[in-house]
Design brief:
heterodimer, A: 383 residues, alpha+beta, Gyrase A, domain 2, Alpha-Beta Plaits, Elongation Factor Tu (Ef-tu), domain 3, 3 domains, six-stranded mixed beta sheet, six-stranded antiparallel β-barrel, 9 helices, 20% helix, globular, B: 123 residues, OB fold (Dihydrolipoamide Acetyltransferase, E2P), six-stranded antiparallel beta sheet, 9 strands
């Protein structure tokens, strides 16, 4: 992740005043002043999201779009930089992918949506990490062919509403949101304001992400927070929620040295791309797909109560250091400390006993399947 | 019994030659939900400024420093089982350690309650 800027240089999202009014503790994050928690506290906010619904300001994330003459041209342009199948992405569907460097390392992870509306044929909507905008945008601009351009949408805010009651709460203002399938999105009105709403998020729960005009963000957030089911949630709980859900935080669990195979996110690589290659670092990534990676991201759960944080060494019991934790903390929905990190593939099996070294102490832990808390994404009932 | 406060947001209640040390209400508010407390063992000799304990909140680990020199005579075992007590009763039942006061002169460097309140107001 990028180093935070000096305090004077920090940017504010359109919801800054609302966060302060709600009593948030504001901290520097990726160049923005962001709410790490509200008075309820991280534990309560985390459980609120799992039990009902939480509203997250994620306006610091980068919103942009690729604009080309038709879907195939724009999709092929993006495919040259990422290992996912963008050409066959259907209208209204969304896909998680990564931008790659020439060595097959991950430059950023991002969400890509193909607008449903036919009049927007040739557009792809992107949401990238706040800390990576300054890397992603030049990389995209340099990599796009003539006829496909990058438009940065810095006049929009991004609001995530997550939790089992999130879609009900949003649908009270934007009824069409209730009809969205998981990983799909559409433009629709929220109390008469045009928004792009997609059924996705980063908590492991059902919910939406809403790209809204910056000037309307506060009104939309207030309308949602007026609903008893919805409470504001800070970045602290966003981190513990995504960790339980087994989702990567760029700059911690993924970086420019990690490939999608090492990062255990090969689900972002569809069959055609795996076979054909044609993305940066394809040689390495295809070899890792065939022979297995040297190291791989795993989840772990500690036996005791002491958390192991990012940077803690991973040992085999009584043996050598085999890896490092890349995320870690107390998991409110598990009631125990958990984390993720990288270990050699031969020690990555579920159930492997490991130690996390914290302040010189060896804390016993076990490699567990991810997600550690089962995800509850919306699945359309079978007709 | 006299209670003193440090700039690191510890309270030190001195009775005879034994000081009970904990973290202040302000400190627990700043930490947020406490999920683990690592305490020293009885008999450990601490110098002023040494790391005496570690408090882990959901978000981060924070050190608690010895406000004065002294030997640890008791650690509050209740916190091992119920770390959330630090949030509920930081200036009472959720004390961290009892120390034998080795150098009473060091107490004069600490603040009284009024001075500590004024200090917190500047933060």
């Amino acid at each position: 992740m990028a180093e935070p800027d000096a305090p004077g240089d920090l940017q504010k999202t359109p919801l800054y005043d609302l966060h302060v009014e709600l009593g948030a503790r504001m901290v520097p994050f990726a160049g923005y002043e962001m709410p790490v928690q509200y008075p309820a506290g991280i534990m309560t906010e985390h459980l609120q999201t799992r039990d009902s619904a939480g509203l997250f300001d994620v306006s610091h994330m980068g919103q942009a779009k690729l604009v080309g003459p038709d879907h195939e041209t724009t999709a092929r342009a993006l495919e040259a930089l990422c290992p996912s199948n963008m050409v066959e992405l259907k209208p209204g569907k969304q896909r998680y992918t990564v931008l790659l460097n020439a060595d097959g390392g991950i430059v950023d992870d991002l969400m890509v949506t193909r607008p449903r509306d036919e009049s927007l044929d040739g557009h792809l909507l992107l949401v990238v990490n706040a800390s990576r905008k300054h890397v992603d945008y030049p990389l995209l601009e340099a990599g796009l062919p003539d006829g496909v351009r990058l438009e940065i949408l810095d006049d929009r805010a991004l609001i995530a509403v997550q939790g089992p009651k999130a879609v009900e709460a949003v649908a009270a203002h934007a009824p069409a949101a209730a009809d969205l399938e998981f990983m799909s999105g559409d433009f629709m009105e929220f109390d008469g304001i045009s928004c792009h709403i997609s059924r996705a998020g980063y908590t492991g729960e059902d919910g939406v992400e809403m790209s809204v005009p910056a000037g309307a963000a506060e009104a939309i957030a207030r309308a949602l927070l007026a609903d008893d089911r919805v409470e504001p949630i800070g970045l602290g709980a966003r981190d513990s929620l995504r960790l339980e859900a087994g989702l990567c935080l760029y700059g911690h669990d993924l970086d420019e040295t990690t490939s999608p195979v090492e990062g255990a996110i090969t689900f972002c690589m569809q069959k055609r791309r795996r076979e054909e290659g044609g993305f940066p670092g394809a040689e390495r990534i295809q070899a890792e797909l065939k022979d297995g990676p040297g190291r791989v991201r795993v989840g772990f759960k500690l036996e005791g109560r002491a958390p192991a944080r990012e940077g803690a060494e991973i040992q085999l019991p009584g043996g050598p250091v085999i890896g490092t934790a890349t995320s870690g903390g107390f998991a409110p929905s598990v009631g125990a400390p958990i984390g993720m990190g990288y270990v050699p593939a031969e020690h990555a099996a579920t159930g492997t006993k490991i130690n996390l070294v914290v302040r010189g102490r060896e804390l016993p832990a076990e490699i567990v399947d991810m997600p550690i808390v089962p995800n509850r994404y919306y699945r359309k009932p079978k007709a | 019994m006299t209670t003193y406060f440090s700039k690191d947001h510890e309270w030190i209640a001195v009775e005879g030659d034994v000081a009970t040390v904990g973290i202040t209400k302000y400190a627990q508010e700043q930490l947020g939900d406490v999920v683990f407390v690592e305490l020293p063992e009885a008999g450990k000799a601490l110098s002023q400024g040494d790391e005496a304990a570690v408090v882990e909140s959901v978000k981060a680990a924070s050190e608690v420093y010895a406000p004065i020199d002294g030997e640890v005579v008791e650690a509050n075992e209740v916190l091992a089982e119920e770390p959330a007590k630090v949030n509920e009763d930081p200036e009472g039942g959720a004390w961290f350690i009892k120390m034998k006061v080795a150098n009473a002169d060091q107490l004069s460097d600490l603040m009284d309650e009024a001075a500590y309140k004024a200090f917190v107001d500047t933060l």
